[in-house]
Design goal:
The chain has 209 residues and is an all-alpha fold. The chain has a single domain, classed as Tetracycline Repressor, domain 2. It has eleven helices and no strands. Helix 4 packs antiparallel against helix 5, helix 5 packs antiparallel against helix 7 and helix 5 packs parallel to helix 8. The longest helix is centred in the middle third of the chain and has 28 residues.
């Protein structure tokens, strides 16, 4: 039952935000009483923390699954695209509530799960350098921090909403441009060929971006 509660409440948080969602509203889809919830969680904040942990673990598992058998540049591209594709569909109120009302919870989760995610990204970058596809003159820590800022702005805020872009076009005009800048000529060629395999990017002249 605990896993069912976490899965259901995570969906509710992502759809409606956090601040205005009571425990009763969160578990409404399950048709159970709040008394049942308190058997497993002390309060809403603890429920949020575990739901957030579940969310980031799901993201990490997706990253791990994508990693099987891919070279570095396509893998790097796919992971960031899957992330933005997922988070652009989440209610922006969720991220706003998390940042403004539950910063301690966000920070606690970031110091655990984010370390694993960042470690994986570093490994991919090193793999790309060995393959001759990523430039050696870049600082992985700085470029990951820069990508994180761009990603957060693109996926978790309404900054680009006035442009009325699809998720794929938003990605091509933001993060994909940055990833091209990390690549050697060999890496750029591989990236452009990889983008052509995505039907959602058909007709897009990636080399002009």
């Amino acid at each position: 039952m605990k896993d069912e509660i976490l899965q259901a409440t995570l969906k509710q948080f992502l759809k409606y935000g956090i601040r205005d969602m009571s425990i009763q509203k969160l578990i409404a889809p399950l048709g159970i009483s709040t008394k049942t919830v308190y058997k497993y969680f002390k309060n809403k904040e603890e429920l949020l923390e575990e739901a957030l942990h579940l969310y980031y673990m799901q993201q990490y598992e997706l990253m791990e699954n994508l990693s099987e058998g891919q070279s570095a540049v396509p893998l790097f591209f796919d992971i960031w695209y899957k992330g933005i594709e997922t988070e652009c569909k989440i209610n922006k109120i969720f991220f706003q509530d998390l940042q403004y009302y539950y910063p301690e919870v966000e920070k606690k989760i970031e110091t655990t799960i984010s370390k694993k995610i960042w470690k994986k990204f570093r490994q991919i970058i090193q793999q790309g350098i060995k393959e001759g596809c990523f430039r050696e003159d870049l600082d992985p820590e700085v470029l990951l921090e820069s990508l994180s800022v761009l990603y957060t702005t693109s996926a978790r805020t309404a900054q680009f909403k006035p442009f009325r872009l699809s998720i794929s076009m938003l990605y091509i005009n933001t993060i994909a441009v940055y990833i091209r800048g990390l690549c050697t000529p060999k890496g750029v060629a591989i990236l452009d060929e990889h983008i052509k395999t995505f039907k959602i990017f058909e007709g897009i002249n990636v080399s002009a971006n």
